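$ fold --in a.seq
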Amino acid sequence: MKKGVMRPGHVQIRVLDMDEAVKHYTDLLGMIETDRDDQGRVYLKAWTEVDKFSVVLVEADEPGCDFMGFKVVDEAALNQLEKDLVDYGVGVEQIPAEELKDCGRRVRFTVPSGHAFELYADKKYTGKWGVSSVNPEAWPRGLQGMKAVRFDHALFYGPELAAVYDIFVNVLGFYLAEQVLDPEGTRVAQFLTVSMKEHDVAFIHHEDKGKFHHASFFLDTWEAVLRSADLISMTDTSIDIGPTRHGLTHGQTIYFFDPSGNRNEVFCGGDYHYPDHKPITWKAEDLGKAIFYHDRVLNERFLTVLT
């Protein structure tokens, strides 16, 4: 079933004030600024990521997410996936190489939930930050804040989850790892993976199209998540909820907001998924425990604050 998509590659996030945003994502989250372009966009990566960037910040009048990109194995896979999307009835847009600095051509498409995604095969390989590729040390000195390990996934809110599922699973080769079903058996949340991770992208039903819930960054340990909570308080950063544990995915998590109101997550742990694993199902009436395993209730911000 594999179609050539490897992993999440990048996300472009709209911010209201670039200086404040850069300070948040570098000083607090601990990402590394790698470049800027003539459009004023700022490129960031986490220290273990081998490509030049995984987060692109762009100044705009309202917060949110412009698109999420996935890296594919090679140009042949990109060509085939583009053809498969078109054959499936999905419109595609060609984004030329270097529109994002040091990134090859991208194939962009919008799914029925109103979210834009793109596929690409090439991006400048820079290696892990601060450690050698020969006899590397355990971690680099000089990391800031939460010391984000990688950009892990994004969660989007929107309608038509079944149609979104069809594109990601039938065309792009993702698997359904976990789901939430309402009493009628309709899927109201879906966690999709193209790797061994518990999810690489997720969707929750919402009547409005194109809503961005959060971008998530992986940390090594529960202690690192707790330390992140301390840093959130030390910097008077707006917090959503946590530290706590998810029922879905079983990851240990904390949610907070960047200065523009975009939600971030840092987490550790979580389940793994192989192609022969059947999806885990949660009942919608137990959604509180599914999302926040300890409190077993949903806080209003988590459901209603979207960008």
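$ fold --in b.seq
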Amino acid sequence: MPPRSWLFVPGDSDKKLGKAMATGAHAVIVDLEDSVAVAAKPQARAMARDWLAIHRQHVTENRPVARWVRINAIDTGLWREDLEVVMAGAPDGVMLPKCEGPEQLRMVAAEIYELEQRNRVANGATRILPLVSETATSALTIPSYVDVPMPRLAGLTWGAEDLSAVLGATRKRDAKGAWTDAFRFIRAQCLLTAHAKGVWAIDTLHDDFRDEAGTRRAAEAARGDGFTGMLAIHPDQVPIINTAFAPTEAELTEAQAIVALFAASPHAGTLQYNGRMVDQPHLRMAKQLLGIA
């Protein structure tokens, strides 16, 4: 089952790390990048490693909590030091920020392979989640992930803050609250490429964590558009995201009815349900929904 909520937690905050597993987040991302000052990064690496090791088998809401680490970008020169330390904690995955295409992902994958051997972690156990939008180059390389074999690729996600600074954009949304053209284009590319690749599509965060209604709208829109989960920057956003991505009772009831309808007529291509026609795409969506639930 794909993680619905992905919560960032600063890697140098013992207080916030200590509370992370009680938030209900399906995936916790210990951040070594933007939320940690350069001088604090060595300490953050060690804290991340220890936190990963302590919570190796943590379960909440009858499901394991995925333990991820966001390392520093390739161009910082810090990413190898990050991996050298945190891989001893056997993270479930590594988020790669400002990823400028499959070649950078392969570099990280090769380093992880060596560190898995050294730390007696099962080969291939550590997945990679690239942030594919934070520079103009990274945004333009999104479709290139489709045809490249990348067994460690867990999904694709994107963000708007860094790119807006790169572009010098004074706005990310229009007067009605919709993404402006560049960001809408990137979001669609991320979604389509993830589905073409058969990996998770994870929508970006809602940056005002005090705006519960805004977070709810963003999460509901993400699920409605076909994303499998969403990033969060504050624990208060987690239950909102989890609820938005959970199938409703009405949806489950309809999905069960459609599956039963086709089971009773296995050779039918199209059937009638509640006054409307349903066909094979409806059946696939129903099965997918029941599988997610």
